[in-house]
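#help-structures

NK: newbie question. if I give both the sequence and a SMILES, will the prediction place the ligand too? trying with magnesium ion
OV: yes, paste both and it writes out the complex. here, I ran yours:
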Amino acid sequence: MNSSIFALSSAPGRAGVAVVRVSGPQAGSALSALAGPLPRARQAVLRRLAFEGAAIDQALVLWFEGPHSFTGEDLAEFHIHGGRAVREALFSALLALGLRPAEPGEFSRRAVENGKLDLTRAEGIADLIDAETPAQLRQALRQQDGALADLYEGWRSSLIRALGGAEAAIDFSDDGVGDSEFAAARRAAVDICEHIQRHMDDSGRGEALREGLRLTILGPPNAGKSSLINALARRDVAIVSDTPGTTRDVVEARLDLGGYLLSVADTAGVRQTADAIEAEGVRRALTHAQGGMTLLLLDGSLVSPRAGLPADLPEPDLIVWNKSDLGGAREGLCISLKTGAGLSQLVEALTEKVRARLESADSSPALTRPRHRHALGEALAALRHGLAAPSDQPELLAEDLRLAMRAIGRITGRVDVEELLDFVFRDFCIGK
Ligand SMILES: Nc1nc2c(ncn2[C@@H]2O[C@H](COP(=O)(O)OP(=O)(O)OP(=O)(O)O)[C@@H](O)[C@H]2O)c(=O)[nH]1
Ligand SMILES: [Mg+2]
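OV: that's the protein plus ligand as structure tokens.
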């Protein structure tokens, strides 16, 4: 039997209310030992908490009888006053009652083990807790709601059906009866390949939305790159000076731009230089600009604003002309980081670019984690391998379908052989 665990589920520190969760077979006995008879399930009641005659707190308590709880086990919640002494007193009592502190993520892990959550939903909860911006929140909520689980489980179900077809073709291969089943299995595999490929060809928007999209500010020395990161972050992130070549390291700031998490990087001004340290700065700048978005900042008041820039500089997502206060009108986005002119238009244009990069026109959920990408890559490779096999050897396709199924099943954490039998039995008349 599982041990019973407890943990502070709210943030540590002093607070009006702190929530302590207890899960496992002893949750009910612990609750009644501390708070009296078990209340009705899912109804908050105010109780006096005490242990061995010593008062702990006046607290709201809740009782969830398994399997109707987050973990699927018996679960109790204590909404105590959020002070250190109260917390410690409750923890000591729970320890004395034979419960143990939970490991990180153990409540969600038990929920997965008990079939309350699949892995992608559990990951969605983790993302929801980490979400810093509205867009991250929307994506995490969707995942927690099962959008990804439904998508991947859907593909897995199709693979299971295709496998049934391939297996029927193996069984009846001698008399040619299985030909149509085999053709259908191949068609299904091609179809799923296309779906997976489309899902993966999204330039990492879901992952970038989750982790923060990179925006690298590139440009010649003294264009105002450090002034720009400071203006965007609204704080003094990087040193600004009129000495060209001030910035050498990549300096990053995370900010919420129109609801999207952006990781903006200020970099060394790009130019040919004999200074080894500055040259290293330039190398880092160009390396950092790979992947993510780039903004090219130029000094519009100069006669040759691009002087010194290499011809093979990556095509920027946005070109911005700075120092409009010094004259020299330019076509396009003109700003002055000195006066603040044009800054709001720049933020608008940037938000638009970021939105276009992170939001998709179709409504299907985005790939959010490298773990999923890796498993989908494996599934795709297996399917392509299977489709390349000769049609008189259906067992080869069947084997690759099985590999692809297993890879996708690993994403949601529900690789289950029993299910395969159910599906095959339902769609094919094996006994015939
Ligand atoms: N007049 C004027 N000066 C500006 C403007 N923006 C920045 N500057 C000045 O230009 C100089 C260079 O600014 P920085 O932000 O350090 O430029 P940088 O691109 O980071 O330069 P490096 O780090 O050397 O590559 C500083 O003296 C700034 O005060 C502007 O819009 N107008
Ligand atoms: Mg700088």
